[in-house]
Amino acid sequence: MKKIIPFGALTIAAVLALLAPSTEVTTVAESSIDTGDTAWLLMSAALVLLMTPGLAFFYGGMVRKKNVISTMLQSFVCMGLITVIWVVFGFSLAFGEDIGGIIGNPSTFYMMKGMLGNDVWPALPTIPIALFAMFQLKFAVITPALITGAFAERIKFNSYLIFITLFVIVIYAPLAHATWHPDGILAKMGVLDFAGGTVVHMSAGWAALASALYLGKRKEQEHTPSRISYVILGTGLLWFGWFGFNAGSAGGANALAASAFATTTTASAAAAMAWIFFDILKGKKPSAMGACIGAVVGLVAITPAAGFVTIPHSLIIGVVAAVISNLLVIWRTKKGIDDTLDVFPCHGVGGMVGMLLTSVFAHSSVNSVVTTNGLFFGETGLFTAHLIALVGASAFAFFGALLLLKITDLLAPLRVSEEAEVMGLDISQHDEEL
């Protein structure tokens, strides 16, 4: 019976698509759609999608050889599963008509209703709404993929699919709505999240910590990366794709996109060097792994701030985030928490550092959306709002993930058997190997 359910659910979605073909065309009298902005967002959406295969290489190179395919597939499969959910009702949950400031009406854009014609999303009036929906889809795709590094080498693939389905519906969509919908509770508080520090990285980071604690330690604790060359390749793809992630979030080919582009690469470069130099300071040799992890931490930390801070301040954000995440990796190791690929110290903590530093360095001269300047400029309102949001979003993501893990475990046990773990997930879960 359990084998029927996944294909049955996809079949139901296909039948629903037959019943709701969404052929209505919306025509707006005075459309402001711009071809240049549309072209840039099309490219940005493609860049963000490329980040998920990049993440697959980044994570895949870090695990042991017997788990490479399984780990990479956990990222890759999100491009399929999350897309289906998003098209049917996920986009509506995140950006549909507001319900209480925490979730969207699932019927607003059900089966991509209203995507034909020249309608737009109000906050991005120069691109078609269908493009906005697809751009946002790529963020929803990579978020659950980020979590996989925490429970790598010990989770059942089928159970994982259940968990990420629940995660996108119950945690990601409400956070996206609360933060990015104009009527969302965090948006109304004045919380700034340019490209996903709270929505993407904090939610994934806290879910990763919950997953590591819930699933417990691997039977074999040694950690020998299988392909450091994969890690380098993955980092390059992530850095490249991140320009779509951050500069694309400007909503068009404009000066703000150029500023976000510059802050993104500056923070990542500074964080990569800070990680290397901090390792040397601790008596370690400079490593390719360290440089790659540092670069990604910088990208994570600048994500919420990219379109709100100046280029010099992005350099500070990269350095601070790298040092703090590096120290948290040491803390995590001492505590014996088996977050396999340090998702919480790097993505969760990096996202939180970036969120707080956004409220320190944000300035209206960079982006007119900033109505209260950051703490560095003598104003406290934005910093206070971000502190409150940080606590609330962290608690929601962490305890929500724990609940979803428990529900998933009841539906389908999460952990593979000890025998399957020792054999390796490539063989035990997929009958494939390098």
UniProtKB/TrEMBL annotation:
Do you know which SUPFAM superfamilies this protein is assigned to? Ammonium transporter
Do you know which Gene3D superfamilies this protein is assigned to?
Answer: Ammonium transporter AmtB like domains (1.10.3430.10)
Topology in membrane? Multi-pass membrane protein
Residues that span the membrane, as ranges: 39-60, 72-95, 120-147, 159-178, 198-216, 228-245, 257-278, 290-309, 315-331, 343-362, 382-405
* Primary subcellular site in the record, as a coarse category: membrane
Where found in the cell? Cell membrane; Membrane
List residues of the Ammonium transporter AmtB-like domain. Answer: 39-432
InterPro entries reported for this sequence: Ammonium/urea_transptr, Ammonium_transpt, Ammonium_transpt_CS, NH4_transpt_AmtB-like_dom
Q: Which domain of life is it from?
A: Bacteria
Keyword annotations for this protein, in alphabetical order, are: Ammonia transport, Membrane, Transmembrane, Transmembrane helix, Transport
Family of this protein? Belongs to the ammonia transporter channel (TC 1.A.11.2) family.
Identify the PANTHER family for this entry. AMMONIUM TRANSPORTER MEP2 (PTHR43029:SF10)
Its name, as the record gives it, is Ammonium transporter
Question: Which species is the source of this protein?
Answer: Sphingobacterium suaedae
User: Which lineage?
Assistant: Bacteria, Pseudomonadati, Bacteroidota, Sphingobacteriia, Sphingobacteriales
